[in-house]
User: Fold (2Fe-2S)-binding protein from Streptomyces parvulus.
Amino acid sequence: MSSEDSESTSPRTVQPTAPSRRTFIKSTSTVGGVLVTGALVSGTTSLGTAVAAPAEPPKNFEVTLTVNGRRHTTTIDTRTSLLDLLREKLELPGTKKGCNAGACGACTVLVDGKRMNSCLILAVRLEGAEVTTIEGLADGDELHPLQQAFIDQDAFQCGYCTPGQIMSGVGCLREGHTGSSEEIREWMSGNICRCGCYVKIVRAVEQTADGK
Ligand code: FES
Ligand code: FES
Assistant:
């Protein structure tokens, strides 16, 4: 063995080797895993501070609201829409579910006097609210003038959109957006009628606005 060979293999002359890519990735992923695990599972930060787990939001909630003049106190899933509360819990199926996404107006009701799409409102937010649905519009046997106008003008075919059209029409009348047929069309444009009864629906609103 030459003196050169012995020098190159001597422990005193071996240089520290850089970690290979494989070793580096293995070691850093292990450290990262420990940090992530520590933060998320054990609920401690990297500084060792204890972190409280976020509280679970309540799944059920009690709400009191008035529907068609009748007060209801009921416990509901916090995700319940006003539409589902009306139809499935309060047994008021007159309000219709069309798109269930705020696009058709079939579910229109009055909340504190303002027309709204009930499919878009969480019922838990309506503590103390006054809701009027199509079932609450007539005065006993006497129809609301707009209900009567829909009959007079023959403003429906299948009738599925009609409760929403009438409730929206009541809102439109109260808001005073009845100066012309164009204005009525514009302010009723959120209510879709697949049967295409728009001309007669506008006439019904006009009839009511004119007090005929
Ligand atoms: S069902 Fe609410 S807007 Fe269509
Ligand atoms: S009357 Fe059928 S959708 Fe309007």
User: Anything to note?
Assistant: The pocket of FE2/S2 (inorganic) cluster (ligand 1) is lined by residues 97-100, 102-107, 117, 119 (CB under 6 Å). Residues 1-17, 27-42 have pLDDT under 50 and may be disordered.
